[in-house]
Design a protein that fits this description.
With about 325 residues, the chain is mainly beta. The chain is built from three helices and 24 strands. Strands 9, 10, 11, 12, 13, 16, 19, 20 and 24 form a nine-stranded antiparallel β-sheet that branches. Strands 6-15-22-21-18-17 form a six-stranded antiparallel β-sheet.
Length: about 325
């Protein structure tokens, strides 16, 4: 239908799709801003401006797509930066961004304590804008925010994030521009920690992936290397397994990975550029209550910060330098 035809049937845009802004009022999420997005054709998700414009809840036609930790949507004021404290406010959800100065394991480097996965997901966005509008006969549901991680005398990185859904489409596009706005070279590390949960993830699910190579993180993952595409029922005492994929891509660098579940009839596909994000971390956790598949495009291998520095492979941005990452999430019926 054209814009004019749709407007003849409706009195308000929100009848058929759009977004809604609010503030949570209870528990760990009190005073946390939320933006609910409704694609108008079954796909719904929630943006959290106070957590770096990350995405928590996501569903398709009422069926959940993501894993939420016991913490749920937690206000960043409760963040504990030391060691594994990040886990105490980890929401999970469709997207938790890790970075930007550091990501990966907690460690001490040059006398500085770096906590698990960095500070990004606990940083509030500023200049949060709803840019939704008609463009010819397409209505774009678009939100934008600016997130900065910086410290006096230290590194300074700025993220400009846009999240867009076309009305009537069951997908979203994420565009991130990261800039070093400081005066010295800065480490730049990022992991797009995307967390899929029940019922999309179950023993009936299958990972559709075509990597150029796959490496287990450790001996525990090595024991499951032949089963990384398949999943079990929740298991008591299960220990997580992590695999690092280097993905095949087309001439423009585009690649994709899909989790499909024929029992539920739903597939979730992540498309991205393997030149921008050359590694895909796979986090397989089949525990009881901790039942999640992480599919995580990243710009760094699964190595410690100190080891990457020794090998001269820790990503950096020069002063004034910017990079742009684009990721698309597509929900389809199978």
């Amino acid at each position: 239908m054209t814009r004019n035809e749709i407007m003849q049937y409706t009195g308000n845009q929100s009848q058929i799709g759009g977004s809604r802004n609010y503030v949570l009022t209870d528990g760990w999420g009190r005073n946390l801003r939320g933006i609910d997005v409704n694609s108008g054709s079954g796909f719904q998700y929630t943006i959290l401006p106070d957590r770096g414009m990350d995405i928590s809840l996501a569903s398709y036609k009422g069926s959940n797509l993501v894993y939420l930790t016991c913490n749920g949507e937690t206000h960043p004021a409760f963040y504990e930066p030391e060691n594994l404290g990040w886990l105490r406010t980890f929401t999970g959800g469709l997207l938790t961004t890790c970075g930007l100065i550091n990501a990966g394991a907690a460690e001490i480097d040059e006398g500085e304590q770096f906590g698990l996965h960095g500070r990004y997901s606990t940083l509030p966005a500023r200049q949060v804008s709803d840019l939704s509008d008609w463009f010819d006969d397409e209505y774009l549901i678009k939100h934008r925010g600016i997130i900065e991680e910086g410290v006096m005398f230290g590194y300074k990185l700025r993220m400009e994030r846009e999240i867009t859904t076309v009305l009537g489409h069951n997908s979203l596009k994420l565009m991130d521009k990261v800039t070093n706005f400081g005066n010295k070279p800065s480490p730049y590390t990022i992991i797009y920690h995307m967390n899929i949960g029940y019922p999309l993830l179950s023993e009936d699910a299958e990972l559709i992936i075509d990597p150029a190579s796959t490496e287990p993180k450790d001996n525990r993952a090595a024991s499951g290397i032949n089963e990384y595409k398949r999943f079990s029922k929740p298991q008591k005492g299960y220990e997580e397994q992590v695999f690092i994929h280097t993905m095949k891509s087309d001439a423009s660098g585009k690649t994709m990975v899909t989790l499909q579940n024929r029992n539920s009839g739903i597939a979730l596909t992540i498309k991205y550029n393997a030149v921008q994000l050359p590694y895909l971390w796979q986090w397989k956790m089949m525990g009881q209550g901790d039942y999640v598949l992480g599919l995580e495009p990243s710009n760094l291998p699964c190595k410690s910060r100190r080891l990457m520095k020794e090998e001269n492979i820790l990503p950096h941005l020069e002063p004034g330098e910017s990079v742009t990452n684009e990721i698309e999430v597509i929900i389809s019926e199978i």
